[in-house]
Design goal:
The chain has two domains: about 10-125 and about 320-330, ATPase, nucleotide binding domain (Nucleotidyltransferase, domain 5, 2-Layer Sandwich); about 135-310, ATPase, nucleotide binding domain (Nucleotidyltransferase, domain 5). About 45% of the residues lie in helices and about 15% in strands. The chain has a five-stranded mixed β-sheet with strand order 3-2-1-4-5, sandwiched between helices. It is α/β, with parallel strands linked by helices and about 350 residues long. Bound molecules: 5'-O-[(R)-(carboxyoxy)(hydroxy)phosphoryl]adenosine and zinc ion (ZN). 5'-O-[(R)-(carboxyoxy)(hydroxy)phosphoryl]adenosine binds near residues 190, 195, 286 and 288.
Length: about 350
C-alpha cells in the first residue's frame, strides 16, 4: 500500500451493478474502507442473479452500507472531496439504485459526482494494493458478466486510454464456471467451489479450447469463447451418468478449470507480447482463481512480463474499486459528470467517465 498522501483526494465510491452493494472510501491510493453487502444468498436457489431481487436488496442495503463505510474510514460523509458511482455496465435496475444514491449524496453535500465504468474500476482497484498502475498495461478482465483484454494507457479513459483488444463472443468466463458448477451439483456462485474441488482432482480430461484453431485465430486472435467448452463438459457428464459410473467431480472441475485458464492466459500473454506491454493486470471475480494466477505468472515470466493481481476481496465487485477510479479522476483533473448522469446497462468499455 502506498503511503497516505495528504493532498490526495478523499473519495467515496458506490457499486451496485450486480448483486453486491459496495461502498468504499479511499484516500488517493490508500484504502480506508470497503463495506460490501451481498445478496448472493438470495439468488443461490435460482442458480443465477435475479435482477429484481438484486435491485430491492441494493435499496435496503444502501444507507447502512454507506454508514458502515464512513464509520470504518473514520470520516463523516461530508468530509469527502467527491462521490464516484458505477454508471454501467450492469443490471439496469441495480445500477439505478447506486446512481440515485450517489446523486442524492453529491447534490446534498455539494460535492462533484463521477459516474464511472465498472470494468475500468476493476483495473483501477489494483492501485490500492500495488500502488500506481504501470501504464500502458494489459488488463485481462474476467468476471461473471465479462471477459475482455484491454490495453490501458490511461485508466481514466483520457485520449483513448482504454482500448479493447478482444472479448468473449458468447459466455463470460465466470458464467462458464457458474454453469459448469451447477451441472456438477456445486452451489452458486460456482467459481470458488470449482477452484476448491479442482485442488482435490487431476487434469484427466482434454476439454476443448475455444477459438484457438489456426482459422479462428485469424479472426479472433484475442477473443474468447466458453460456450462450446460448457457444452462439452455437459456432454461428458451426461455420458458418464448414462453409463452408470460415478462422475469424478474433482477431475472434471480440474480439467474444466485448466481449459479456461489455459485459453485465458495464453491469449492475454500473447496480447501483451504483441503490444510490447510488460505488465499484465488481472481483474474481476475470476481473478480470484488460484490456478489462473499461477499459470498466468508462469507464462508471463517466460516472456519477461510481470503480472499484478489484486487480493481476492478486491477482485470481486466492491465499492473501493469505484472509489479508486474516482480518486484517479480527481487526481488527473477530469471534469466531473453531470448531476443528471444516466445508468447505462450496456456502457461500452471505452467510456470510462460518463
Ligand atoms: O466480478 P464479479 O464479482 O461480478 C461480476 O461483475 O460478474 O465476478 C463474479 C464471478 C462469478 O462468476 C464467480 O463464480 C467468479 O467470479 N469467481 C471465480 C472465483 N471466485 C469468484 N471463478 C473462478 N475461481 C474463483 N476462485
Ligand atoms: Zn465486476
Amino acid at each position: 500500500m502506498s503511503p497516505t498522501r495528504t493532498d490526495a483526494p478523499l473519495v467515496l465510491g458506490i457499486e451496485t451493478s450486480c448483486d453486491e452493494t459496495g461502498v468504499g472510501v479511499v484516500h488517493g491510493h490508500t484504502l480506508l474502507a470497503d463495506a460490501v453487502a451481498s445478496s448472493v444468498e438470495e439468488h443461490a436457489r435460482f442458480g443465477g442473479v435475479v435482477p429484481e431481487v438484486a435491485s430491492r436488496a441494493h435499496l435496503e442495503a444502501m444507507v447502512p452500507t454507506v454508514e458502515r463505510a464512513c464509520e470504518t474510514a473514520g470520516i463523516a460523509v461530508g468530509d469527502v472531496d467527491a462521490i464516484a458511482v458505477t454508471s454501467g455496465p450492469g443490471l439496469a435496475g441495480a445500477l439505478l439504485v447506486g446512481v440515485a444514491a450517489a446523486k442524492a449524496l453529491a447534490l446534498s453535500l455539494g460535492k462533484p459526482l463521477y459516474g464511472v465504468n465498472h470494468l475500468a474500476s476493476h483495473v483501477a482497484v489494483d492501485q490500492l494494493e500495488h500502488g500506481a498502475l504501470p501504464e500502458p498495461c494489459l488488463a485481462m478482465l474476467v468476471s461473471g458478466g465479462h471477459s475482455s483484454i484491454l490495453r490501458v494507457a490511461d485508466v481514466t479513459g483520457a485520449d483513448d486510454g482504454v482500448v479493447p483488444l478482444g472479448a468473449t463472443i458468447d459466455d463470460a468466463a465466470g458464467e462458464a464456471f457458474d454453469k459448469v458448477a451447477r451441472l456438477l451439483g456445486l452451489p452458486f456462485p460456482g467459481g470458488p467451489h470449482i477452484d476448491r474441488a479442482a485442488r482435490e482432482g487431476s487434469i484427466t480430461i482434454d476439454f476443448p479450447r475455444g477459438l484457438t484453431s489456426r482459422r479462428d485465430l485469424e479472426r479472433h486472435r484475442f477473443d474468447y469463447s466458453f460456450s462450446g467448452l460448457k457444452t462439452a463438459v455437459a456432454r461428458w457428464v451426461e455420458a458418464r451418468e448414462r453409463s452408470g459410473e460415478p462422475v469424478p467431480v474433482a477431475d472434471v472441475a480440474a480439467s474444466f478449470q485448466e481449459a479456461v485458464c489455459d485459453v485465458l492466459t495464453r491469449k492475454a500473454v500473447d496480447a501483451a507480447a504483441d503490444q510490447g506491454i510488460e505488465d499484465i493486470l488481472i481483474g474481476g471475480g475470476v481473478a480470484a482463481n488460484s490456478r489462473l494466477r499461477v499459470l498466468c505468472e508462469e507464462r508471463a515470466a517466460a516472456k519477461g512480463i510481470r503480472v499484478r493481481v489484486p487480493r481476492p476481496g478486491l477482485c470481486t465487485d466492491n465499492g473501493a474499486m469505484v472509489a479508486a477510479l474516482g480518486a484517479e479522476m480527481v487526481a488527473r483533473g477530469r471534469t466531473p459528470s453531470s448531476y443528471d448522469l444516466p445508468a447505462d446497462s450496456s456502457l461500452p468499455v471505452t467510456e470510462v467517465l460518463v
